[in-house]
């Protein structure tokens, strides 16, 4: 089992998230989404094009932009309830 995240580790994760391009991010896959052109992740800024990524990789990366802030908030909520 991994040790619990420290407050410093959570702050480092939060900083990486805050420094990333604004969200929401969304994955567009040509075969799945019936779009024309390459697969990409749409962001609040420049689109991200990945090579060698699976559909699951695209979805994971795109959702991480929204998921990580929510997970941090939940960790903080739970810690406030049960310090």
Would you write up a description of this structure?
- With 83 residues, this protein is mainly alpha-helical.
- It has one domain (7-81).
- It has 3 helices and 2 strands.
- The protein has helices spanning 7-19, 30-33, 55-81, and strands at residues 26-28, 40-42.
- The protein has a two-stranded antiparallel ribbon.
- Helix 1 crosses helix 3 (55-81).
- The longest helix is centred in the last third of the chain and has 27 residues, at 55-81.
- It is elongated and about 50 Å long.
- The two termini are 20 Å apart.
- The mean pLDDT is 93.
**What is the number of domains?**
1
Run of helices and strands: HEHEH
Query: What is the global morphology?
Result: elongated
**What is the straight-line distance between the termini?**
20 Å
Instruction: Tell me the β content.
Output: 5-15%
Q: Mean pLDDT across all residues, rounded?
A: 93
What is the spatial order of strands in the main beta sheet? 1-2
What structural category characterises the helix and strand content? mainly alpha
**Strand count, sense and closure of the main sheet?**
2 strands, antiparallel
- Residue share in helices? 40-55%
Q: Total helix count?
A: 3
What's the Cα radius of gyration? Answer: 16 Å
Task: Itemize the secondary structure elements and their pairings.
Elements: H1 7-19, E1 26-28, H2 30-33, E2 40-42, H3 55-81
Helix pairs in contact: 1-3
């Amino acid at each position: 089992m991994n040790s619990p995240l420290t407050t410093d580790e959570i702050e480092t994760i939060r900083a990486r998230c805050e420094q990333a391009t604004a969200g929401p991010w969304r994955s567009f896959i040509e075969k799945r989404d019936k779009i024309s052109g390459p697969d990409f992740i749409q962001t609040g800024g420049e689109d991200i094009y990945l090579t060698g990524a699976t559909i699951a990789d695209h979805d994971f990366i795109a959702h991480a932009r929204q998921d990580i802030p929510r997970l941090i908030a939940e960790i903080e909520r739970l810690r406030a309830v049960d310090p």
